[in-house]
Design a protein that fits this description.
Order of helices and strands: EHEEEEEEHEEEEEEEEEEEHEE
Helix content: under 10%
Distance between the termini: 80 Å
Strand content: over 45%
Low-confidence stretches: none
Radius of gyration: 27 Å
Number of strands: 20
Largest sheet: 20 strands, antiparallel
Length: 326
């Protein structure tokens, strides 16, 4: 810091500085400051310029074989610059084996907003992240999640921190959750503060495909979601079931869902659903099926304990979940 001379205000004093960090063993910090176990090495360089009133700087940080509580996080590299108006992440890369997450973009501090933020993630197997890393941030869960499969994602963000707009492209491959195979998924969507537009979503399991197009609108406190499906189809060798018209339903945070006469038809027959299902309260749900045939597909999605051929029925489920009547 150069002290002011003459009429120069103290706040306008030039600010110049350089800081270099080289920590070959992060474990030392854990011992000195009684922190949770950390490992790996860290190098960095910080350059500061500008004035006391309007400082600016640039930073370069790299870490190798970083770990936390004896769990490997990977290699980290960050290139960034900042001033009183914004923080620009030129490049941020995290690598763990063959897995990789990269990002860049700008944070506008005065407006509390994102600008041109892009994040890309590629993971060969989700297993270690659910079994090893997520418990680090959720130690009270008491349960190791058994999730496996590959994932690729691309996210773009812009607009206010509290409700950005953006897009998500998501691909999952050979996904298994708690031992249940869920196949592959491909999702493209746009989102804003109160709406998600599902431009296309397709989930493939064995010989079946589930296709969805629609939108989800949420209220400010995320307690209710209005779902509109413009396309929903279960496809095997033919279109087994598909919505006949735009379908709407309302989903509540407590699990309650209201169907507004949702109707599907195809080579597997016809199904319509209307009414309210509440897993914690009182339900009143009406289901009508006509010429329903579940051979070759129903067991993949729902259960292999039931088989239907040419079923015609009207079913009403009402009352409490613990003691319903039909």
């Amino acid at each position: 810091i150069t002290l002011p001379i003459g009429e120069q205000a103290f706040k306008d004093s030039p600010l110049v500085g350089d800081l270099s960090v080289d920590l070959p063993e992060l474990e030392i910090l854990s011992r000195i400051f009684a922190l949770p176990a950390m490992g790996g090495s860290l190098k960095g360089h910080l350059n500061v310029s500008g004035t006391l009133q309007a400082p600016q700087g640039a930073a370069s940080i790299s870490g190798q074989t970083l770990s936390y509580r004896d769990k490997i996080l990977g290699n980290l590299s960050i290139q960034a610059k900042a001033d009183i108006k914004s923080v620009v992440i030129k490049s941020a890369v995290l690598e763990r084996g063959k897995d990789r997450a990269i990002g860049h973009g700008e944070l506008i501090l005065a407006d509390k907003s994102f600008e041109n933020v892009n994040i890309e993630v590629s993971i060969i197997d989700l297993g270690p992240y659910f079994s090893e890393l997520l418990p680090l941030w959720d130690p009270l869960s008491g349960k190791t999640r058994n999730v496996h499969g590959g994932l690729k994602a691309s996210v773009k963000l812009a607009g206010p921190f509290a409700g950005p707009t953006g897009s998500l492209n998501l691909q999952t491959r050979k996904l298994h959750i708690e031992g249940t195979p869920l196949g592959d998924g491909d999702v493209d969507l746009m989102f804003s503060a109160d709406r998600i537009d599902i431009q296309s979503a397709e989930f493939t399991m064995d010989q079946l495909r589930l296709q969805l197009v629609g939108d989800i609108r949420r209220n400010p406190d995320d307690s209710e979601f209005d779902i509109t499906l413009k396309k929903a189809a279960i496809i095997g060798q033919s279109t087994l079931l598909a919505i006949e018209n735009t379908a709407t339903c309302r989903l509540f945070r407590n699990g309650r869902i209201i169907f507004d006469n949702v109707s599907l038809a195809g080579s597997a027959g016809r199904v319509s659903v209307d009414g309210r299902f509440d897993p914690r309260g009182s339900s009143d749900l009406q289901i009508a099926v006509l010429d329903f045939n579940g051979d070759g597909w129903f067991d993949f999605i729902f259960t292999n304990r039931l088989r239907f051929q040419g079923l015609n029925a009207r079913i009403r489920v009402a009352g409490q979940a613990g003691a319903p009547f039909y």
